[in-house]
Amino acid sequence: TEAGHSYVCTECGYKTEVEGHSLTVDEKTEAGHSYVCTECGYKTEVKAHSFEYTKDDEGHVGTCTDCGFVTAKEAHSYDDKGVCVCGAVKASEPEGPTTDDTTDDTTDVTTDDTTDVTTDAGTTPSDPSTPSTPARPGSTGDESKYALWAVVTAISAVAVVIIIIDTFRRSKKKEAPASADKNDGGDDE
Question: CA dihedral in degrees (158, 163, 164, 170; nearest 10)?
């Protein structure tokens, strides 16, 4: 049955509980695939493929995730929204007027992955993959360790404060004995 299979003993008539089928792919066609149980021979009806697509600019190939059936390469076929079943999106046509070959103000466009880049100074960098502007705003290209310099600055500031306090205390100690001697001498009269 569709639910599974059971076994019956030919000697005593004992019947086992129904077990699930151990299905494996039986047939693969363009229409779909069917399974067969490796233990009892039960065959399923033909089921539709579930395709995952591999695509390129020219078309796509579908591979069924259930049975492994592979379609022949097909050209993209777009729906009314410009999307193919494989996920490819139709390139939109440029809008507006087109230029003919007699116009002098046309721009050459290349379709490869390289792009001509001109910097603000009017030069073309030797390596187009390296940006001619800093990676982040305010970046100077200095790769110094800012945390280290902040710690050194803080330690220096603390040292300056300690020196000022120590100098102030020493000057107070020098003034204190001189004023104490003046007060001692005046009280004896």
Answer: 150
d(CA 189, CA 170): 32
User: What pLDDT does residue 145 have?
Assistant: 74
24: closest CA among 32, 35, 33?
35
Does this model's pTM top 0.85? My answer is no
Q: Tokens 């729906």 sit at which residue?
A: 79
What end-to-end distance do the CA atoms of the chain give, in Å?
Answer: 131
Q: Which two tokens stand for residue 38?
A: 């490796």
Average pLDDT score over the chain:
75
List, in sequence order, the alpha helices (H) in the chain.
146-187
Residue 77 CA, chain-centre distance (Å), reads 29
- Give residue-wise pLDDT tens across range 81-133: 889 988 888 877 666 555 554 444 444 444 444 344 444 444 444 444 444 44
Q: SS3 of 172, please?
A: helix
